[in-house]
UniProtKB/TrEMBL annotation:
It comes from Gadus morhua (Atlantic cod). GO terms for cellular component: early endosome membrane; plasma membrane; SNARE complex. Belongs to the sorting nexin family. The lineage of its organism: Eukaryota, Metazoa, Chordata, Craniata, Vertebrata. This is PX domain-containing protein. PANTHER family: SORTING NEXIN-4 (PTHR46596:SF1).
Length: 407
């Protein structure tokens, strides 16, 4: 469903071709089993001087590192999410083991989708670290760490402090947070309901399998009704077995919903970054106002509020004119620097809002289009399934040798 909007995606096809289970020692020298994924790119046009590169194997943790780098480097972008690390919203037949072959295969598809989404983005697709991730087996981790992005990352405590202490939050970003929360709640509810329905559906279909076994055993001891009972048992078994393929196809649609569930965290990340910039702007404005007040007090000699400097003047006498002029000059320089800082931070805030709202608009259009397509496809699949089940059961009922006809 990803459109080939960027120059990079017009030049190459990206595939996470296969997965492989490996064993090795982790950072604390303990043996572990993990999965790696093979990234292959195929050039569809001339490379234009770009290196051919390797077909690297990547662990899930390396995909996480890449996404964290993109989050820090491009805080105004709604960064595409990774597929789930461990299965969520599972029903009882679905394994929650992250090494389960079916789960690994769904994750492989999700990782491929992540790479294609990044490559389709007009800004992210031009990042050199991303291209190295696609093409260089060795040296990529060192290259991404050398960018120093970890030093630029905002701590959770700092972001939380900004969220709690910002005095004038922008209404548009407040509304975006609410939109994100509502989208998260709606999709979570839909996935929970779907998991419950899958459980019940699986149980109902397997009951038919029990009936199929009973009819087959019954046919062995009946002469006149034997053929009809055996036919009915066969159709019951076929009906029971079909649920596995149905629910496997449903899981594909559930994964599309989960992607947008995880997208909500990317929206919150944009909001948190804006709150931090807004908070820093407010602190810069307060600092400038404080310095201007100090200049006024120093110029007029009137102290509006209690201060240590005011008490010192009373205890030890007034400053000499030369000292006051020196302090005024230093304070004026500090005020000028603070005014420049306020202007820069204000410009940063406006630029962040402009770029982030372009991103949010693009995301909403993408979300509306893709979820509509996915839900329509899901409805068509359900209709097709019901018709197929009806045709199968109709065949069993209309069989002239069916038990109901015989009896």
């Amino acid at each position: 469903m990803v459109e080939r909007e960027t120059a990079l995606l017009k030049k190459i096809d990206i595939n996470v071709a296969e997965s492989e289970k490996r064993s090795g020692k982790n950072t604390v020298n303990m043996q572990e089993t993990y999965t790696v994924y093979l990234i292959e790119i195929r050039w569809v046009v001339e490379r234009g001087g770009l290196p051919v590169g390797d077909s690297p194997w990547r662990r899930y943790s390396e995909f996480e590192l890449l996404r964290t780098y993109l989050l820090v480097t491009y805080p105004f972008v709604v960064i595409p999410p990774l597929p789930e690390k461990r299965a969520e919203f599972v029903w009882h037949k679905l394994s929650a083991d992250n090494l389960d072959p079916d789960f690994v295969e769904r994750r492989r598809l999700g990782l491929e989708n992540f790479l294609i989404r990044v490559a389709s983005h007009s800004v992210l697709s031009k990042d050199k670290i991303f291209y190295q991730f696609l093409t260089e087996e060795k040296g990529w981790r060192e290259a991404v760490l050398e960018t120093g992005f970890q030093d630029k990352a905002d701590s959770r405590l700092k972001s939380l402090s900004a969220t709690l202490r910002v005095k004038n939050p922008d209404k548009s970003f407040t509304d975006l947070k609410q939109y994100s929360d509502e989208l998260n709640s709606a999709i979570s509810h839909l996935l929970r309901v779907r998991a419950k329905v899958a459980d019940r559906m699986y149980g109902v279909y397997k009951v038919h399998g029990n009936y199929g076994r009973i009819f087959s055993e019954w046919s062995a001891i009946e002469k006149e009704m034997g053929d009809g009972l055996q036919s009915a048992g066969h159709h019951m078994d076929t009906h029971s077995a079909s649920v596995d393929d149905i629910l496997e196809e449903e899981e594909h649609y559930a994964d599309q919903l989960k992607e947008y569930l995880f997208y909500t965290d990317a929206l919150r990340s944009v909001c948190r970054k804006h709150e931090l910039i807004q908070y820093e702007l407010e602190m810069a404005v307060l600092d400038l106002a404080s310095k201007k007040q100090q200049r006024e007090e120093l110029t007029t000699g009137a102290v509006r509020v209690f201060s240590l400097k005011g008490m010192s003047s009373k205890l030890f006498g007034q400053e000499s004119p030369e000292q006051r002029e020196s302090r005024l000059a230093a304070l004026q320089q500090s005020i000028q620097a603070s005014e420049d800082a306020v202007l820069d931070k204000n410009q940063e805030c406006r630029e962040f809002m402009r770029m982030s709202w372009e991103e949010v608009k693009r995301f909403k259009e993408q979300k509306d289009r893709e979820l509509r397509e996915a839900l329509i496809s899901y409805a068509i699949m359900q209709i097709s399934m019901c018709k197929k089940v009806g045709d199968n059961m109709g065949t069993a009922t209309c069989d002239p040798h069916h038990v109901t006809r015989t009896m």
